[in-house]
Amino acid sequence: MHRSLRLRLLAGSLVWIVAAVAITGFLLADLFGQHVRERVDAELNGHLDQLTAVLDVAPDGSATLRLPLSDPRLSRPYAGLYWQVDGGPTGAIGLLRSRSLWDTALAVPPDALADGEVHVHQVDGPDASQLRMMERLIRPAELPDTAYRLIVAIDTRQIDEPVEDFATLLAIALGVLALGLAAAAVLQVGVGLAPLGRMRDALGAVRDGHARRLEGDYPQEVQPLVDELNTLLAHNEATVERARTQAGNLAHAVKTPLAILANAARNDSSDLARLVDEQVGDARRQVDYHLALARARAAAAVQQAGLKTPLRPVLDGLIRVMSRLHAERNLHIALTDVADTLACRGDTQDLQEMLGNLLDNACKWARSQVSISATLSDGLITVHIDDDGPGLSEAQRTAVLARGVRADEHTPGSGLGLAIAHDLARVYGGDLRLDTAPLGGLRATLQLPAA
Amino acid sequence: MRILVVEDEPTLAQQLADALTDAGYAVDRADNGLDAHYLGDTEPFDAVVLDLGLPQMDGLTVLGKWRNAGRSMPVLILTARDDWHQKVAGIDAGADDYLTKPFHMAELLARLRALIRRAGGHASALLNCGPLCLDTRNSQLTRDGQPVSLTSHEYRVLSYFMHHPGKVISRTELTEHLYAQDFDRDSNTIEVFVGRLRKKLPEGMIETVRGLGYRLVAPT
Q1: A81, A133, A199, A249: least CB-packed within 10 angstroms?
Q2: Which domain holds residue A366?
Q3: What is the ipTM of this complex?
Q4: Does the beta-carbon distance from B87 to A356 stay under 8 Å?
Q5: What is the pTM of this model?
Q6: Which CATH class is domain B126-216?
Q7: Ranges for the OmpR/PhoB-type domain (chain B) (predicted)?
Q8: Chain A contacts of B79, Cβ < 8 Å?
């Protein structure tokens, strides 16, 4: 409940709908019941008036009806509507009765009625029924001491049945209404929350590298949030870019003096000059290594989203570079099975950095051939970079990936390339493994998350 | 062979110039992008060493302008920026090689030699013409396998001939490629060096083409 806006909104709507419909139902049923009872009472009253009007009392106290009462139910046995006259000089029960009472008489509780007063009672009737009874006491002018108790009664089933029928119909109608309202509420919540769903999809696209910003128009309640997110994404990009620029500036600031120192030292053969030369080499390697990692960590730290780098153009560009940098070697660099659709999640420069170091290493050691292939499986892109050079022993492979260890002390500018590629791949949630290539030399296997 | 060194750090520029001069090249220098562009656009260089972070106009822009104007001399980028994306950008802008600071001067010289050689269409470090063989790696000339000793000026002239065998080379062209811009050029000195070279080479290998210049030919 606390987690889902949709459930919260739906639950609120449903509680409100059920309560409103239930209260309406009870009120309507109650009103209808009252109405029916009033109608029945009015009817009983009419019958009572009619009975009063047609009752003739002889001077000897015997009573007769001048006319039969009009309602046909009164002449059908146990039809549910009855009349009875009690009293008279003998005080008999059932002095006169309607035919509908057949062979029974109504047992009426004793009651003291003022003249002309009408009382209503609930009594047992024939056939195990419950009756609503209305009675009046009259004293004829000719016999002022003799009271006649005039009674009409109706089976309560005749009241309850229409009320129950109405309640059933009402329940069905209100149920249908409640279902309609609930469906409307579901629809409304769905439509109302749809922009949030779209926003989630757009964010997913950014995370998966299909987009760099949240795109599309959103309602004015959601748009500020979308704008804020886009601003944040832009800010992150700028942060990474700044870190890169600073790293580049630092590289420039440090390396030019190092170059000067190294050149000056090489013109000299003293111990000091040799020391300077050595240390400059070390300093350079450390700067390279830490700058490469600093750049990658900047990217990783802000979780740079929305970055998708197609593999093919990066490899093509690097192969152009390799064919220049290693032009003297006349290497055959073969790019096989690299589909145009392959793309890595992450930054172009970092991908260039990893692949550049691996390719450079392969070109440096290859005798004549370097081979590159890439495949996609289970969301991982696997790039094989093979050479036909001398390769590395098991121990060397482990050592070369360890930080700061140089596998070849003799070729300038090398040694940390593989370690940098390894650490960068780890930052990106991938990995770098070294192996023996089918060509005979080193196989570097770089695995990176696909976009 | 004449090289343009574009480097805004004066000490490094001086070190480069010294090393290149020692290696027998004529060296011109520029310490900003605008001067570099102008020099490269108007003077015939055999190679350029180009820094990327330059005042006034950055190195990649300079390179792009040269290439757009059809200037095809080999260019080696020498920079502290060693990101691979910078290297790709540099190569794609038209650079022929890329070296990062700090560097070994020996490697720079080797790469420059190779660039100049390949620009002349030579695949190997050994340039052959008839009985002559010039090893560009150690500046050693052999004639029928026997070493021939040359002064540095003689070497420069012969090296230019060996890079362009069979091509008629005017005295002006030789002068432009053998001396830096601020050098007091006197085409008579060229004649002197050609004369000395002729004495060390087999008869008739350096022909005089009247009114046009010289040509290196393999003896028949």
Answers
A1: A249
A2: 307-451
A3: 0.78
A4: yes
A5: 0.63
A6: mainly alpha
A7: 124-218
A8: 252
